[in-house]
Amino acid sequence: MSQSDSLARELALAASRKFSHPDITAKGERRASVRLDRLETLWVNTGSLCNIECANCYIESSPTNDRLAYMTLAETVAFLDEIAALNLGTSEIGFTGGEPFMNPDIIAMTDAALARGFRVLLLTNAMLPMQRPRVKAGLLGLKAAHGARLTIRMNLDHHTQALHETERGACNTREHTEQSCFLSCGRRLGRLAAEHELADREPDSRQREQRFW
Ligand code: SF4
Question: Which atom of ligand 1 lies closest to the CA of 59?
Answer without folding.
Answer: 8
